[in-house]
Amino acid sequence: MSECAKAIKLSGADIVTVAVRRVNISDKKKPLLMDYIDPKKITYLPNTAGCFTSKEALRTLRLAREIGGWKLVKLEVLGDKKNLFPDMIETLRSTEVLTKEGFKVMVYCNDDPLMAKRLENVGASAIMPLAAPIGSGLGILNPTNIEIIRSQTKLPVIVDAGLGQASDATIAMELGCDGVLANTAIAKAKKPFLMSLAFKDAVIAGRQSYLAGRIEKTIYGSASSPTTGII
Amino acid sequence: MKKIKKIKIKVNGKFSTINENLSLFTLLNQLKIPLKKVAIELNHEIVDKKKLNNIKLRKDDKIEIVHFIGGG
Question: Which residues of chain A does B15 touch, with a Cβ-Cβ cutoff of 8 Å?
Fold first, then answer.
């Protein structure tokens, strides 16, 4: 737990996703997350990781709200145990219900621009398209779709799932995303603390690069030295 | 002296035997649950933490006590 807290601090993360699980009542000495990560300093984002139906997801988030009045939540309804892709029909339905109940819902979704638009239309607070399957480390498989999703909405776009190394975070930020969500890429790196730092720098670099505005691509060369006064 | 009747309930998936008419509040106190850091469900319905004292437990009640752990 203390390692986790240290990695979060090093990465400069603003938000940490949390899951709702049973309290261990037989071992009361087991430390609580809140003893290590102060919810006043880092925003806790309750999420429904591991839920496969809308019903489970709604139950989880209603409980989360009860723990501490959290309204900002991350919705994730999975449809396939093998690749952990989201079930977008259930996700869309749940987003609608939760929004009506007053939740601010950040939604894990596939990288389909049409679905992203529909989520926005039912009240999503942020769009969180996957880069690749959760925990796969494949990086951003479809940057074009992420770019389209970015361009069609004013909502925050946060690339969620599938990042493998720091440069993937840079690419996400250069596509105009507002942030990235990373767990496995850091937690399972050979040196997690070093990878936390790398992700921090990568996100900052990507954002600055996006704001700076990249040059146009061309297939021809163009000299950067003046052509006048050549000897 | 009247003998106190015992009842069986389930807490976080495990059977537990308690005195009949025990309040949910007392049970959570006995279990040393930090109320501010948890949410409680009684028979699949979320319990308002302000009303814990008014809830008397009954036979076969199912209680879930949950909290946050890290995980995305």
Answer: none
